[in-house]
Design goal:
The strands form 4 sheets. The chain has an 8-stranded antiparallel beta sheet, with helices on both faces. The chain has a 4-stranded parallel beta sheet with strand order 3-2-1-4. The protein contains 14 helices and 18 strands. The protein has about 400 residues and is α+β, with helices and mostly antiparallel strands. Helices cover about 35% and strands about 25% of the residues. It folds into 3 domains: about 1-100, Rossmann fold, CATH 3.40.50; about 130-190, ATP-grasp fold, A domain (Dna Ligase, domain 1); about 195-405, ATP-grasp fold, B domain (D-amino Acid Aminotransferase, Chain A, domain 1). It starts with a strand and ends with a strand. The structure holds adenosine-5'-triphosphate and magnesium ion. Adenosine-5'-triphosphate binds near residues 157, 162, 194 and 279.
């Protein structure tokens, strides 16, 4: 099985997926615009070949270069788990006549307006929405939909340039702040808790699914720099409160005709228990959520995804054994990390349940929370009981402080 992997070294999880492909026996050919020597070792040692292109986002040129490069290699899959490359992967599949998602379908995963139009036609509950290309279009959309609203990029990531809008003056402010964004979605604001629904599929069959609970909503974390946020992978994704979300996820995959690979959907659970669609990517989630899923089942979904993509099965045991809490710490203060406070006491009491601690070392500069979701460090706690998981996660958020100065 010869697989073309777009951007095998970036973002952080890509070397693990690249290695997963090699582990299940694929020959992996990487494409990127950096030098081979600059790839993380895990990615480099898993590749059977690497093509450095001029510019990964010049799709016409990339298609030309790749077509030339792979001639005679018998490429059977083209994969990309990085959001901006999802359509490029589809273009390459079309050009090389490789099975998998085509451009039209991939676009429905990238363009948030197209996405919701397809889902609306299938009867899926999406927030009311309009495309806004100009200030006038946005004002007209607000007039029509009414407040509260959300203004966000059509092809966004990391909650960047996303603003809640509760009145006319919020709207004008949001329009000012999103001036550099070519196109926005103006959407009905959905109150409630926010969850993910993630899957690994093969030929339309869901081989693995995961529900994670964001605490708080990503937008709240984005707008409040002091918040250290959590994502909890639920052991019991079959719980009655999650039923509507799972059903929503299944109907979304069906409406978009998703066949094979990872998906990452976000959805809202309103106070009345209704599940409302948020967005979906035809890729794995970032921000260590795949690690959290691995910890919740003691499996390796980097290789599991690779097996599904190459051979149509996921042979590892996918039984969920734990609730898994991911905690992203943001330091207090600016400058250099000075000390950690309170961690030892938490570990003395709960250490056996804390399975990962990766912090910015003392003496290093604190990170820019706008750019790095994992912030100044990430920890993982897991426990079969949800209440206990939340209790320890809350302590790691509130009683453990990373102090910068
Ligand atoms: N219609 C809505 N109602 C309420 N909150 C919303 C709505 N749309 C977006 N949000 C909030 O803004 C966040 C970012 O929006 P969205 O997920 O669409 O964009 P993104 O930037 O692509 O996301 P990601 O952070 O997953 O890359 C959501 O996680 C949610 O917290
Ligand atoms: Mg999102």
């Amino acid at each position: 099985m010869n697989v073309l992997m777009i951007s095998p070294g970036f973002p952080a999880e890509m070397p693990l997926f690249t290695r997963g492909l090699a582990e299940v026996g694929a020959r992996v050919y990487g494409i990127g615009d950096g030098p081979l020597a600059g790839l993380p070792e895990r990615a480099r040692t898993s590749l059977s070949g690497y093509l450095r292109v001029e510019n990964l986002w010049d799709e016409d040129a990339v298609v030309r270069e790749v077509r030339e490069w792979v001639r005679g290699h018998g490429i059977e899959r083209v994969e990309c788990l990085w959001e901006p490359g999802v359509v490029l992967a589809a273009r390459l599949r079309e050009a090389l006549d490789v099975p998998g998602m085509r451009v039209e379908q991939a676009t429905a995963f990238r363009d948030k307006e197209v996405m919701k139009q397809v889902l609306d036609r299938a009867g899926v509950r999406t927030p009311k929405h309009r495309r806004g290309r100009t200030v006038e279009e946005c004002r007209a959309a607000a007039e029509e939909l009414g407040y509260p609203l959300i203004v966000k990029p059509i092809a966004g990531a990391g909650s960047a340039d996303t603003y809640p809008v509760r009145n006319d003056s919020d709207l004008e402010e949001a329009l000012e702040l999103t001036r550099h964004v070519p196109e926005v979605s103006v959407e009905e604001f959905i109150e409630g808790e926010e969850y993910t629904y993630d899957t690994v599929c093969s030929r339309g069959e869901i081989l693995f699914h995961n529900v994670a609970w964001y605490r708080p909503k990503p937008l709240v974390a984005r707008l409040n720099p002091w918040i250290s946020s959590q994502a909890i992978c639920l052991r019991d994704a079959e719980a009655p409160e999650m039923k509507a979300g799972r059903a929503l996820g299944e109907s979304v995959l069906q409406a978009l005709g998703f066949e094979t690979g990872f998906t990452h959907m976000e959805w809202f659970r309103t106070p009345s228990g209704e599940a409302v669609f948020g967005e979906i990517g035809a890729r794995a989630p970032g921000a260590r959520l795949v690690h959290a899923m691995n910890y919740s089942c003691d499996l390796d979904l980097f290789a599991g995804w690779a097996e599904a993509v190459c051979f149509g099965s996921l042979s590892q045991d996918t039984t969920k054994r734990y609730n898994t809490g991911l905690i992203f710490k943001r330091a207090i203060g600016e400058g250099t990390i000075q000390r950690y406070e309170g961690l030892d006491a938490i570990l003395a009491q709960h250490g056996e349940h804390v399975c990962n601690i990766e912090l910015v070392p003392i003496g290093h500069p604190r990170r820019d929370w706008r750019k790095v979701v994992v912030g100044d460090g990430w920890l993982v706690v897991r426990h079969p009981n949800l209440e206990t998981t939340l209790e320890i996660a809350n302590k790691l958020v509130a009683d453990f402080r990373i102090v910068a100065g």
